[in-house]
Amino acid sequence: MTLLPLAAIETSHPTFSLGPVDFNQDTLFNTGLVCLLLVVLAIFLRTQVHSGVPGPVQNAVEGIVQYIGGLADESMIGRGIVLAPLAITLFVFLLLCNWIGLIPKLKSPTNDWNTTLSLALMIILLEQFFSFRKRGIGGFLKHTFLAPPFFIFTPILELAKPLTLSFRLYFNIFVGELLLALIIFLIPTWLSWIPGGIWTLFSLFVGIVQAFIFTVLGIAYIAVATEMEEGHA
Amino acid sequence: MEKAIVLAATLIAFGLVMGLGALGAGIGDGLVTSRTVEGTARQPEMQQRLFTLMLISVGLIESLPIIGLGLGLFLIFVNPVLGQLK
Fold it and tell me: Which of B61, B77, B78, B84 to mutate to probe the A interface, most A CBs <10 Å?
């Protein structure tokens, strides 16, 4: 049942099933496209590397690697965990995922709760794993279940982390693309390029910010979970 | 009749979600940016770091009304209560 007659705007994904499992066609296809783009970009950059003045693409990638890698290294000081490769990969992947939906006829892989939830679950599992490895079983249990009155809250907090992490990214991209479709649908074509262009620029910005926030929050969760000083949850 | 009530309630709920969400996020955004401006005025050499922090915070705050908008659009497009009525 739809309230508004907006049959022209498709919000659900076309699926195909293999046995009992349903697969979202467009998400799979666009994720593969993003991966292919990243690999091709990496190979292209590797062949272009020289010791002279770097080109603009190499400059941008080096900037991203230095900034995100520096951030990851900074928050992992004294912990013996190398998180920079994961953080850089996550950021670049999410950035391309968020931006690829702005090309007409393509949908962002992050416009699907499955993508963002699986990435968030990966972060949370890593967080628990590192926490367990760093603190041992006693410290892990002590930090997971605090003193008696509070032991209900920490599992709720841990459960809320993947939910908020995935919902934030998913709804930002979902609403961005839906509003773009609404602008094109509701405003006559000769005029719709003005709000459409403004909203596309804003979506580019939101794509950067949300990819960055996802990465930084993931690093921060792991950093807090591996802290060794007493008096912290 | 029941359908009309549900539709009207859905639209009122959507308006409340959007309005209150935008109100809170607007206040939060204002607080964050005003403090960033104050900090930059006091220590201009900190501007780059403060700007990054501000972007993170504003992105975090802005995601709340957008989550509200997403849930509200879900209510409008695929109303779970309307499906129950038939």
Answer: B77
